[in-house]
Amino acid sequence: MMSLFLLLIDLGKWSPENIFGGQVLERTPAGLSILYIIGLGILVGFLIISFVDHFRRPKFVFEKNLPRQVRRKMTQTLANRSLRFWQGFFVLVAIAVFGTQVYWTYFADESNEQFQALNYKDLRNRRASASTLRGWMLDRSGNLASALAYYKVDSNGDVVRGFALEKEMAHLLGTERGTPGLERTLYRRPSNAMPEAWEVLTRIKRPQEEQRDVRVTLDRDLQAYIANQLDGKTGAIVVLDPQNGDVLAMYSNPSFSLSDAQGLEEYLRLEGNKRDKPLLNRATREFYVPGSIFKTFTLISAFRAGKQNAVFSSYAGGFKPTAGSRPIVDSSQQLGSDGSVGGSCAGGCQPKNITEAYKVSSNQYFAQLAIELGRERFRETANLLGIAAVDQPADALVQKFFPAVWNTSTSAIANSIAPQQSALVTGKDISLYDLGIEGIGQGYSGQMTPFQMALMAAAAGNLEGKLMKPRIEADHPPQAFSQVLSPQQAAAVRNIMSTVTEEPGGTGTVISAKLANTGIKTGGKTGTAEKLAPEYDAQGNLKTITRQRKNAAGELEEYKVPSMYKRVDSWFIAIAPIERPQLAISVVVEGGGYGSRTAAPIAANVILKARDLGLLGDKYRPKAPAPTAAPARKRR
Amino acid sequence: MKNRTSSHVFILVLIVGVTAIGHYAVYYGALIRGYEASPITAWRNLLLLTILAGLPILLKRFVGFEGNWTLFTSAVLLFSIGLTVQYRLFSDAEYTSRQDKASARQEKIKVMQRHYIQENYSAEKKQIMGLPATPPSPVDLSAETPRPAPETLSDVFLSGKTFNPLLGIIGLVAALVLLRRQEVLELLQKNGFLIVVLTLGPLLIAAIWSRGGKFAGNLTPWELAKIPFLIGFAAVLAILYKNLARTYWGIPRAKDALPLVFMGILPFLPFFVLKDFGQMMVFSAVYATLYVVAVRRFLQRFVLIGGVLFFVAILVVGALPVGTQEKIPLLPTLASPVKLILPDRIQQRFHLWLDGFNPPSPDTSWWKSDYDSYYKKLVEQNPNLPQMLSEDPDLQRTINIDAWFDILAFQPAQATFGIASGGTTGRGLGLGYPELIPVADSDYIFAALAEELGLFGGLLVIFALIVFVSAGVAAARQARDIFSKLCAIGLSAFIGFQALVNIGGITRALPMTGITLPFVSHGGFSLITSFIMLGMLMAISHRNSVDIKRDQVTANPRIAGV
What we know:
The complex is a heterodimer. By secondary structure, chain A is an alpha+beta fold.
């Protein structure tokens, strides 16, 4: 009867998988090991109970009739007291040793700084992240087929990480060594990556993989296109959406191949290349002299101060802020080493209003405007645009990262793509001349990143006059950094910017020529800036000049300094389309010459490409898609 | 609960059952990672435990054992925990194979990645990856073919892992049978000096022949010598303890003290030659215990305890990290002569203990050669390194940290990370990564245990240990003559301190020394020695019970039914 009853019980039901939940494989061993601990715990309890019996020593026969005094002096009693004492000591030491285990388990994470700092030496982290795969990185379309980072099966059957734009996005994604990039920060290890047995048993459910894929704001095709545009040049391009801060594309050339840089040898070689600096993301971490594009900054400041109607004359001999200072001249003028000025004023020497001056890029006008506005106005505008306003020129040379400008879900992501913070000197010590040339993008305003200049253009391009915080995660809500201008002022600034590209006589008319058939109206500003740069020979070695000086003993000795040359950098910032800007572009090409000649055509190409990709909205979408618009997806 | 054989057999059978659960957890955890843990080994382990569970019945029937079974049962409990953790470690190819570590690791990672993809990736994703487009589904382990365990039946049963416990059991029975006889005890007590000298001779020869504390492969036969040393010291102390009480300011007469000091120093000679500082620590603690138990006056104890504290203080002061020393005035001056005397190995261990996460500067005497060889290897890979180093002073710090954690600090650091990752209940058997800790089966078994069984696992071991030592102390308290009293406390102190020195070394409560965790660690001679010690303790406990029974009979014959 009993055996019949036993047969009725389905044994399968009582298998550990069924008891602990087979949905998650790890639950079975986790549950069993907790059962193991509990079982052994009960047995230890039994043992303690079984031992209680032996706690008191039975008296010897002869002891029973001895007087107490004598009994206390007996060796037995004395030695046994020592034994008791020793036993207590042992238990205390055992518990203290156990206490150190408690310390490492519970407190070291928080209180032991060295332990935290060296946590990366824990091989378990690597093992845990190797066996749980990172999420995929999708571009702004969100299609799995156009993933930027994904997994593939290689010829050995191993699952390996693949990148659609290995060279084009190398700076953004970052390598596995050195400072982390998006690849290492977007997919931070989930907090439950190393769960305890009871957590496995009670909490862990199957992860929602779809949620762990990250859709970024980049456009895969645009990113590939801008990388192509900089082919063979040294420079950077940043493309933002001024309305919500989306980073549509960002590239710095020269770049490197991500898979090559995973090896230590190649990485060290890249790091040692001081001439090309392929590991440096020029878009966010290299300072350039902005030149004329910085007049946009002065323009914005003028609107903020209500000085947009100021009229200044230009002078054939240049503008001298104070009686003895060097003259500030237009780019169409030449300043001789003796202080003589040749050539004519940009756009004529007659009095000009701000629109006219911006269109022809009049240095003299904007220098006078800068002095009229003063340091405090510059400081305010700089703060609103995310530029550090510093008191001393030396402070401007201190490089610091500026992750706070990003709109990201975690600080780690912001840190991994943080730009170098651009700086502007607005202290009391700078002279009127310094202030004047600051207003035209020279002198103490010469510490600007291409990324920062794109933000400046985006502030003007925003319909509400706000500077939106740039963002890289497409599913993160947009956020404003500051209210730079009122909506009306922003519209007026855009109008002035459009004269550069749209009206004859503007410095950027090459743009409107290229976009002639599309109906897209744009705004922009050209810039050409000289920067002293070290010279390298064909082998990539630094050229040096040998000089002589007297040393402490009064003898002549030779020393070497790097040979410097004047590099002319080509700049262009653009917003398009002008009535509702969808793009804010900043282009810099090192040694590219005039902004209108090198950087502006690139910006025009980027706008055309964005139109083809539909980034400017349906209004400007070409009727028949251009053949280059949708290249065949090739799977790698 | 009375000290009935049947109730202890019941507990022992339960231990076998619980261990079976643990082994199944390990087996299942291995399947998740794509390999099979040898079922033969599991059955072998259970068989060993079954033999141990049946042993009390045999001992009761044929030897007439009357003593305290708690000693035996708690030791078997510790042994069973050890078997489970060892089963976990030895089933992992990444842990056992010497050459193929990387490929074994890669295979495990591959299997887990495959499981992850199967469970989580949508059909579209799988298709893009070039895998069969199936919707996400739970993994069915029964449909997979894990890599089979390489062990065959003869591998398992003819290995030392089978023979050593069996030899241990034989040693236990032999010790029990011999030592319960009065004449054997008397023989030992009277020839203490002879025993020590006879042990010392072959031991010193073996020590000089040995390489790095190991003999003929991986054997440490001197583990066995611990027993005669202990007996010898206890015997001498048993003769001298009364004379020692005649003191002048706590210091006994030279005539009484010198033989004792001589006997006390003898075991340190071979272990010093072997550089086995762990054994030296345990021996000093055990001898101090014996002395404290044997002497009768407070001042005498004070002199010893004060002396030991003073000695330890000198050691610690000398080995304190430089950064800490500089904070206290005069300390560097005091420490410098001590530093000169201390062997490099002790300085290393002390640094690892007190400041293990902070690499010493590359100029430190005991670290320089290791650092230099590591640096040389790096330069071979990258000839530009010296130039880069001159440009970037931070680089040397980075290299030093890497070298430190790759060479000396690797094992202790991984062990500490393991303990930290274990948490309260551990990662679960077969779910942690104790295979990352080198030699986790012997010296570092507590780290492996703490990682997979957590704080509770550690607590189990500590409690089982306390129960064992308390039972040993109870045997000592009930012992009639001072010799067996000292033997009992010496043996239990030996096992207890050895365990604490081992666990403390891993949790950084004490400096780490290469010493095993008794009954838990995988070991040859150390395990056999532990079992023999257990047998001796049981013999003394048995004698006590017989004595008590005899007393009861003498006092009240009617109760005993005579």
